[in-house]
Amino acid sequence: MEFGPYLFIASLEGAITAAVLALTAVGLSIVFGIMRVVNVAHGEFFMLGAVIAWWITSLVGGHPAYGFVAALIIAPILVGILAIVCDHLVLRRINYDPERTIVATIGLLYVIQQTTLMTFGPEARPVEAPFNKRIALPWFEHTEQGFALTWPWGLSTTTYKLAVIGAAVFILILLWVLMTRTKFGLIMRATQLDSEMAQAHGIPVNRVYAMVFGLGAGLAALGAVLIVPIQQAHYLMGGDPLLLSFIVVIIGGLGSVVGTIVAALFIGMSDGIISVFFSPTLAKIIATLAVAFVLVFRPQGLFGKPER
Amino acid sequence: MSTSLKSFLLHVFVLCLLAVLYFVVSEYHSGNLARILVMAVYAMGYNVLFGYTGLLSLGHALFFASGMYGLGLSIEHLGLSAAPALVVGFISAFIVAAVIGFLALRTSGVAFMIVTLMFAQAGYLTILLAGKYTRGDEGFVIQQGDRVIAGIDLSQADNRYFAALLLFGVCFLFIAWLVQTRFGKTLVAIRENPERARMLGYDIQRHKLLAVIISGTLAGAAGAAYALLFGYAGATFSTVQYSIYPLLWVLLGGAGTTIGPLIGTVFMTYLIDISSEYTSAYMLIAGLALILLTLFAPHGFAGLIRKKLFSWLP
Amino acid sequence: MATVTLLSAKGLSKNYAGLKAVSNVDFELPQGQVRALIGPNGAGKTTFVGMLSGRIESSEGSVVFDGRDITALPAHKRMAMGMAYTFQITSVFSNLSVHENVALAARRVINDGRAAVNECVARVLEKVNLTDRATQIAGDLSYGHQRLLEIGMGLAQSPRLFILDEPTQGLAESEIDDFIELIAELSQQTTILLIEHNMDVVMRTAHYITVLNFGEVLANGTPDDIRANEAVQAAYLGTK
After folding, report:
1. Chain B residue nearest residue A246, CA to CA
2. Do C80 and B201 touch (CB under 8 A)?
3. CATH class of the domain at B3-22+30-308
4. Looking at residue A178, which CATH number applies to its domain?
5. Using the beta-carbon criterion (under 8 Å), do A110 and B251 form an inter-chain contact?
6. What is the DSSP string of A85-120?
7. SS3 of C219, please?
8. Cβ atoms of residues B150 and B83 within 8 Å
9. How far is CA C145 from the centre of its chain?
10. Minimum CA–CA partner of B118 in chain A
11. For testing the chain B interface, which of C100, C107, C163 should be mutated: the one with the most B CBs within 10 Å?
12. Quick check: A288 and B122 CB within 8 A?
């Protein structure tokens, strides 16, 4: 394949990464933004989403779409409930103290991951996509007769991959509506601005925190359900999404949802492109160093405004 | 008896006990113990920063690995003998700690944790990327012939145990001394109330940087010793898990106590060892321990002892 | 007696997001004086003193201490030159013993060993009447005792300039009398800059008073001058 089509396919793969990453990272970002909690177990909620999706699809018979739709609804809810339980049993009891929360969520990370290993096992398990038609993609080529449409061999994608991008965009729009147009969104934003003031005005801050933590985890699980037909479910699959979400949230400016989405696009695309042309390891080194240096030299994120 | 005398006797007693243990316990346990002593040095290094200075790093595996690879690579590729390679290991950790400390200390709190985590992750990935020299995850073995210092073969069980004990003893006494000095007490002041310490005229940044350097160099010394005594260097030791371990050990044993890191390392290592006989999901224990400690015993074992029994415990 | 200027500020200003907390203050503090800084809430007293001590970076202007321009020096270096500072909201090492709190202050100044430090701590605790509480954890002390401990930590540094931000806030009447006595004694050895709300304390301790209002100097003068100053009365004392 020539360079042009190659770049095109890399960008398309990048767009899928970016779409799922945006969902996962927005989950991490609202948890941080509203609760000031850095949830290190976020990647495990992602992993659980994929594993539960595998479990549900293997239970539901018939056309793969039935199981998948069931998973799409049930997995995020189950994961969300689990997160609420974690909030209740652990985070609330340490008063969301920033440093102790990190230590505790590291503990949660291992507990969830290792429990999955004991029950689900160490194998990677596939989930069948609800639909998966291969579509060839056209490419413009400059020939002597002018521009012509060609169909290079290997330049193709699947309907499912395109649907993932569409679904992620749709969910993000729903989330935006939830945050800006509903009472719950208003309550969340009030809590974010000043939790003590919100408490004084009768907002049940603890319940809001629990809901937010559940919502954040649910978003990660949702991202995982979408990606699992492409990637397979595995008990260690939470590591990369955690790292990438961290990177995205920090570069986008901690707690800024719009910044997070922009950064998810940027990181997802560049990760896809650098991984295709160079080594995936190098892509990750660059990304982790970028995060470290952003925090050191520009703590408000690349897209955030300085505080004063 | 004065507090400092009691403290000195306690430390000497612990070292004597460890020396005697070698002759008492089975070969299996003394082998374990040698490993634990080296890891306890790692934990003690971590404790200087976390327990005494109040800075929570999530990237100490980078310093451990700097020592380990500083020694391992210079034996493997530069053909150095063990003694100078050990020095290279120490110096590598020292330099890496100084650079990372200088950068990461521009941040504080949660940002400091994340920055150290990211630098360590970048370090781990770099070791993988340089797989040609480091053999990545698989790692490489340091031959028995390269593990000799001054004619002493450190691959022999008894030599190995007492070499580990020597390193441990030196670090143990060093830290017991350090925390009694003006410098050590200033670190505690910074942990307790940085703004007040600053307005007493202490240069907080300089103290924190020195703490990172001491902490990182000790971690690196442990890494280099580990590679030398057990003859292996691998990328596993630079993963996040190996940054979490010292945190876990120190939390369990008691942060900000000289004896805590040893207690925590002994308990946790055995706990994980025993549970790994039954399940491959042994890190479950580590996870549960982290949560339970955070919830119910933030001061660890030694912290409890200090509170309930001996308030003089250093 | 020839007066030597210990501390002076020229055109000192602080802007917070366009808002002027302190603007263009000139200030001169002769050696050996007890100076009170008064003014209504929000007049910029703490900000101004923060810029003198280095806690707060100034937006404009310069500070000279002991003949040296210290505008660019960080707080800890200014302290090392002989300043001491007590916080408006009590700030001690609340998990450490009373003895260790003072020792931390003393250790920065005294280099010759543990005995000298202990001796200094004992002397200071005696002076602030905390000797019998030396082994207590600072956080367990009553509020009044914590304030005294903070003053003790200042004393242990044997400062040439001692800045106290509302030292009598929250003290009982009897404790205030002791405090006034302590200041009188201290003024023999050191220069004192005092932010104070309690006018009784100000009138009984200060040699000279600076009044700040809306971030600017409203008046300078002896206690009697200030008492007679109509602008001050209008802005602040008003109650008379």
Report:
1. B114
2. yes
3. mainly alpha
4. 1.10.3470
5. no
6. HHIIIIIGGGTT-HHHHHHHHHHHHHHHHHHHHHHT
7. strand
8. yes
9. 17
10. A288
11. C107
12. yes
Would you give per-residue pLDDT tens digits along chain C (240 residues)? Answer: 457 889 988 988 888 877 888 888 899 898 889 999 988 888 888 899 999 999 988 888 999 998 889 999 999 999 999 999 998 888 899 899 999 999 999 998 888 788 889 989 999 998 888 889 888 899 999 888 898 899 999 999 999 999 999 888 888 888 888 888 888 888 888 999 999 888 888 888 889 999 888 888 888 888 888 888 877 777 765 543
Answer CATH for C1-82+193-240 from 3.90.1170.50, 3.40.50.300, 1.20.1250.10, 3.40.630.10: 3.40.50.300
| Domain locations along chain C | 1-82+193-240
Tokens of A52: 């539960």
C201 vs A255: CA distance, rounded Å: 48
Domain range list for chain B: 3-22+30-308
What is the Cα–Cα distance from C81 to B245, expressed in whole angstroms?
43
> How many domains are there within chain A?
1
d(CA B239, CA B63): 11
Cβ atoms of residues B158 and B33 within 8 Å: no
**Among A36, A296, A297, the residue to mutate for chain B (most B Cβ within 10 A):** A296
Which ranges of A36-97 would DSSP assign to H, the alpha helix?
Answer: 42-59, 64-86
Query: Cβ–Cβ of B128/A281 closer than 8 Å?
Result: yes
| A88 CB-near residues (< 8 Å, 6+ apart) | A210
Residues of B whose CB is below 8 A from A92: none
Contacts of B298 in chain A (CB under 8 A): 100
Q: Would you call C135 an interface residue with chain B, using a CB distance cutoff of 8 Å?
A: no
Would you say residue A199 lies in a domain? Answer: yes
| Smallest Cα distance from B178 to chain C, Å | 14
